Amino acid sequence: MPILFFPFLLLSAIFAQQGQSIVKPGSFLTPTTNPSWPSPSGLYAFGFYKQGNGYAVGIFLAGLPQKTVVWTANRDKPPVPADSKLNFTSDGRLVLQSAQGAETPLASFPEDGSSASMLDTGNFVLLNSANQMIWQSFDFPTDTFLPTQKLFHGQALYSSISDTNKSTGIFRVLMQEDGWLAMYPVGTPYTLEYGYWGAGIGGQRNDVVLRLEVNGHLYLINGAGNIIVNMTGGYPAKDVVYRLTIDPDGILRLYSHDMNQNQNWTVKWFGPNDDACKPKGLCGLNGYCVLVDLQVGCKCLPQFEPVNKEDRSSGCQRNFTMESCKSDRYAMKAVVNTVWENNSYSVFTSTTQDNCGEACLRECNCEAALFKDGVCTKQKLPLRFGRRDQKDSTVALIKVAAFPLVASSFSRPETPSVSVQPVVPPEPTKLPIRKVPGSYGLPFIGPINDRLDYFYKQGREEFFKSRIQKYQSTVFRVNMPPGPFIASDPRVVGLLDGKSFPVLFDVTKVEKKDVFTGTYMPSTEFNGGYRVLSYLDPSESSHGKLKRLMFFLLKSRRGGVALAAEKSAGVVAFPVVLDKVISTVVPRDRKSRSQKEKEDEEEVLVIDGIEFAKDAAVKFDVYINDEDGSPSGPDKTVCRKLCERAPFAYAFEAEENLPQAGNH
């Protein structure tokens, strides 16, 4: 049904009723003594507000405990000092004046202004001598849209850099000529490829307008008076103030504030509402957005680091220098389930992901490749608009520097051992920590219940899956299912996503002895399948026994085991094929040595010519193909005993058909 709008009340009538709000030429404001001109009710004010180390000029809600800025003049100019003056000059100009007398216009209008006023709608207006409006702030919105305001085709709201810095940010919402309200990153074309949210219907002309009513009704209406899209239906409450703001994170939100209650702003509606990572460019160049507990987080590409940790939109930069084009100096690192802008320079059909990565590795100009559904697109850096999407199968393959030890592993080192730097006690970390969720339950009863779930009621897959869903975490407290049905002390912290939590084992970030006592450093992405991870360092009393057991298992089960090994002293992590590269070194005169000497000596695992010696802490992810997921060998009792007493004393990998941890 068409809605008819009658002309707004004559401005002369408004000012007759609000005479006390009229500002005459010759009036001025200063940041400290007379900072603003209020609206008749005192709800809004026009004038100076604090920003950074100085002051900015704008419109703000002065009648609320928390001052909220809704419009800013010259928003991209630096803050001004306290000795500045906002002057409504005698000849009707509105200027910002420095202490030295330099003037900066705040508004441009076709004729001299005779009066100005801050209205209770949040609109600041200038009038000529005939009380006709010659300028209004509603025509030049910044990041906020107010009730009774209209957004016509070609007009846009631009986000701010932050809540405290009102300079122009990186997102915009535009009223398009085709009648759609759409959101884009700043600096991109107005096309579907770059848009990340929209509202509208097809077949409209350029007369569609965005409106917000005083009751919070937000909608699009065309020139015939027909509402074509209702974003909200309105809210009947009285004494409630509304505002629509495109926030620094690129989300468009409708806020409300009850004037009768001393409370914060409440979000009534927002878009996009399905994924907070959808705003493109949120994490800058070479960064991608991930959701952790529904909160936005940013990650860098492999071997990249943040440009500015305080500003996530600044993106990421390489932490190494590419000095040569030789492919043997580089490797390809996969970042799964991520979508990016496809700005490829070469596209070809590739049978496998490995073929796609190898093609990029061999080409000097290729710095990354995107692989999806058998199509490989070669890319140059920087990559942009990245975000994690578990429903998208795209794999980003990034060219990285091969680790020095890995690069040299194709030939056996001249020295029989690897130099290990002494572990330096960690400095207190400033990284966020999260309490480990989960419960062990009552003594005896808790372990029994967990074992019943694992062995009889749920099975292994559902046992882990249900707990990941319950705790929204791949790290949680649990009575360790593998092992005997009843164990003396089965309580462990289960880590089911070892690849995503390497920080747990980085003694420069986490003090090892505190890792399993109740807190952990949260990961921002979930990779791989469910996994119980083995990790013991040389300070652990059972380290030597466990490592000897693992070496025995690896040597005796080459056909059924795959290994990923990591040395704590370096940054070595690589998969190997055991039947080709693994060997065990035993001292020749071992039999002639005493029992104590035999115990002190330890077998040395050699992988691709790299030795993992006694003084090197080694982490193993062991994939064992037995049906029950247990390690095989003549001495299971040793393993069971270790498993009862130490978390992650041995490892098993669940079958490949288990759902990915990132899906929960």
TrEMBL record:
Cross-referenced Pfam families: B_lectin, PPO1_KFDV
Chain coiled-coil ranges: none
Residue ranges of domain Bulb-type lectin in the record: 20-139
UniProt-listed InterPro entries: Bulb-type_lectin_dom, Bulb-type_lectin_dom_sf, Cyt_P450_sf, G-type_lectin_kinases/EP1-like, Pan_app, Polyphenol_oxidase_C
GO molecular function, one term: catechol oxidase activity
UniProt keyword Glycoprotein, yes or no: yes
Keywords assigned: Disulfide bond, Glycoprotein, Signal
Residues in Apple domain copies: 325-402
Keyword Glycoprotein: yes
Signal peptide start and end residues: 1-16
SMART domains named among the record's database cross-references: B_lectin (SM00108)
Taxonomic superkingdom: Eukaryota
PROSITE patterns named among the record's database cross-references: BULB_LECTIN, PAN
The protein's name: Bulb-type lectin domain-containing protein
Taxonomic lineage: Eukaryota, Viridiplantae, Streptophyta, Embryophyta, Tracheophyta
